[in-house]
Specification:
single chain; mainly alpha; Four Helix Bundle (Hemerythrin (Met), subunit A); two-stranded antiparallel sheet; 53% helix; globular
């Protein structure tokens, strides 16, 4: 099945999915692996994360030491672009961006009675962010962790961090749901969001350090692409919109399309619409909170969304083709 035919089918069904791999793009482009936490295999070293003092970072050992049942690990040469250009890094950029903006929003709202529009914007943005994260979990749990485990001894820690993160998200969600007009933002929410940001950023860094190299060493791009068909039409358009939007601009996303062999006109058939939807239904709320007044209408342009789009000054981004390392904290 070709990438274009799959994307065309998705467009017809109002379902949009970015992927990354060899020539066909695979789901790892838009998903993060399980967000979970505890001990890791001895194959990976564990170090203290100075930014949190709590999350223990697992680092990559020898690629060959992860082999399961004599699996080969010589496929890295088949991937025709740098690791940081992979869609896995790119979707992580979107997750990091959303958390950076969430953290900025709660900081902006702290210390004053909440207005009705502020409560509604916070609740809408959190709902969308939950969708982004849980969408990753669903596809990963069903397909991609089992895939990795076919050929590798995946460190246990990468499968258990999810528990702590989901618990933290549940707590944040309860606070956001219970925000009251005329009452101040709870101090506990500020603390929870800050800790969630630290934990999530450290976890995503682990995935980039361990899972991306293992995937590229142990699996052929075409093998990974075969798993995509059954889920390509199921991704929520809002998640796709976040992925597209957080490439900074159209030119940045066009580079990704060229890398993956996606015809330029698919931008107009598929990707542009999801980016517009995301800007209207998510980024507008960030802009409103940061500018201190409600949006008169949904925003869609870079000029209208300047505060939201520049939030964090792109410290959340690992630029494609670089050595990696988004700023944390």
């Amino acid at each position: 099945r070709t990438l274009f035919s799959a994307l065309s089918t998705g467009t017809a069904n109002c379902q949009h999915t970015p992927f990354s791999g060899g020539a066909p793009v695979h789901l790892l482009a838009i998903m993060s692996f399980s967000l979970r936490s505890t001990a890791s295999f001895s194959r990976s070293r564990s170090t203290k994360n100075s930014s949190s003092g709590q999350h223990s970072l697992t680092t990559l050992g020898e690629i060959s030491s992860y082999a399961k049942n004599g699996a080969g690990y010589d496929h890295a040469k088949e991937w025709h672009y740098p690791e940081t250009s992979d869609g896995w890094y790119r979707i992580h950029n979107a997750v990091r961006a959303e958390i950076t903006k969430l953290n900025a929003c709660v900081a902006k709202l702290a210390g004053a009675p909440l207005q009705e529009w502020q409560v509604k914007s916070m609740q809408a943005y959190w709902k969308g962010h939950e969708k982004t994260v849980h969408s990753h979990h669903h596809h990963e749990d069903d397909l991609f962790t089992p895939m990795l485990k076919q050929r590798t001894h995946l460190p246990e820690k990468l499968e258990t961090d999810h528990v702590g993160l989901v618990q933290m998200m549940d707590q944040i969600g309860e606070h956001v749901k219970n925000l009251k007009v005329g009452a101040p933002l709870p101090a506990q929410l500020l603390d929870l969001v800050a800790r969630y940001k630290t934990f999530m950023e450290a976890h995503l860094k682990e995935e980039e350090t361990i899972c991306v190299p293992l995937m590229r060493a142990y699996f052929e791009p075409d093998f990974v692409a075969k798993l995509v068909g059954e889920v390509m039409q199921k991704l929520d358009p809002m998640v796709m919109g976040s992925f597209v939007h957080h490439h900074r601009d159209k030119a940045g996303f066009m580079q990704f399309m060229k890398q993956e062999g996606i015809p330029f006109f698919v931008w107009y058939l598929n990707f542009k619409g999801t980016r517009t939807k995301y800007r209207k239904e998510m980024e507008t709320h960030v802009q409103a909170i940061l500018q201190g007044k409600p949006a008169a209408k949904p925003y869609t342009s870079k000029a209208q969304l300047s505060l939201a789009m520049n939030c964090g000054n792109y410290s959340w981004q690992v630029p494609p083709g670089t050595g990696g390392g988004a700023a944390q904290g």
